[in-house]
Structure formats: C-alpha cells, structure tokens
Amino acid sequence: MATITGTPTGAPAQMSARKFLAPPADITETRDAFVITAEIPGVPSGEVSVSLTGNTLTIEARRSGPTLTGVRTLHRESVPLDFQRSFELSPAIDTSRIRAEVDQGLLKLCLPKAVKAQPQKVRVE
C-alpha cells in the first residue's frame, strides 16, 4: 500500500523574520492518484512553490500583508505569513506527472500512482 506522510518543517533562515505556519492538509486517495489539499488562504498562485527532492515533496507559500495607503491602521490581524510543509512520498507515486493548482485559498496537488501501483484486474481463463 502506498503512503504519504506529512510533517511541518522548520522555517528557513530567510523566512525567520516573518510568521510561519504549516498549512492544514487533507490527503485523499482515488483509484489512480493521491490528492493533497492544503489551506493557504490569501496566497496567489505566483507565490506558491512546490518542489520534489528525492521522495520529499515540499510546499512553500508566501502571503503578503495588505498594502494600505492613505489610511491609519487602528488594528491589524491579517499579517504576512510564510507557509511550509513537507510530505514523504511512497515510491508508488509517479513523480513525473504531479500536478498542482491554487483555487480560492486551496492548493490541490494530484499525485498520480505509478502504473504498477494501480489496481489491476487479472483475466481468468
């Protein structure tokens, strides 16, 4: 059985001055793929990076704070955030076909199963 495990990772040195958060993620499985859905509210797709090193998939995203001009801020709860999370992938994942998309604050990663890992029906004669 293929597995994917997720663990929050530490903030890299270049992000140390900013707030850091491991985004909550759901992992589901279909017949042909695993799907990771991570919450990254307020992050545009241009500020999301997904990398694969060995069997470790890493999500990094940056949310800038709002740019306000001509106003005096009385109270602010929306702050810049850096998101980062890593997942250890099973060899049953076809890493050459991983796809990612961002929609309304959700990063959806489709991790196709390698052909050998997909359920097969054996013909009985």
Short description:
With 125 residues, this protein is mainly beta. Helices cover 0% and strands 44% of the residues. The chain has a domain of 75 residues: Sandwich (Immunoglobulin-like).
Structural notes for this entry:
The chain has 125 residues and is mainly β. It has a domain at 18-65 and 79-105: Immunoglobulin-like (Sandwich). The protein is 0% helix and 44% strand. It is built from no helices and nine strands. It has strands spanning 4-8, 19-21, 25-29, 33-39, 48-53, 56-63, 81-89, 99-103, 106-112. Strands 1, 2, 5, 6 and 7 form a five-stranded mixed beta sheet that branches. Strands 3-4-9-8 form a four-stranded antiparallel beta sheet, with no helix packed on it. It is elongated and about 80 Å long. It starts with a strand and ends in a 13-residue tail after the last strand. Residues 10-15 have low confidence and may be disordered.
Annotated CATH topology of the domain at 18-65 and 79-105: Immunoglobulin-like
SSE arrangement, N to C: EEEEEEEEE
> CATH top level of the domain at 18-65 and 79-105?
Mainly Beta
Nearest-angstrom radius of gyration? 18 Å
What fraction of residues sit in β-strands?
A: 35-45%
- Give the structural class: mainly beta
What's the average pLDDT?
A: 85
Name given to the CATH architecture of the domain at 18-65 and 79-105: Sandwich
Number of strands: 9
Q: What proportion of the residues is helical, as a percent range? A: under 10%
Query: Describe the biggest sheet?
Result: 5 strands, mixed
Backbone shape:
elongated
Distance between the termini: 27 Å
Uncertain runs: 10-15
Number of helices, where a helix is a run of at least 4 consecutive DSSP H or I residues: 0
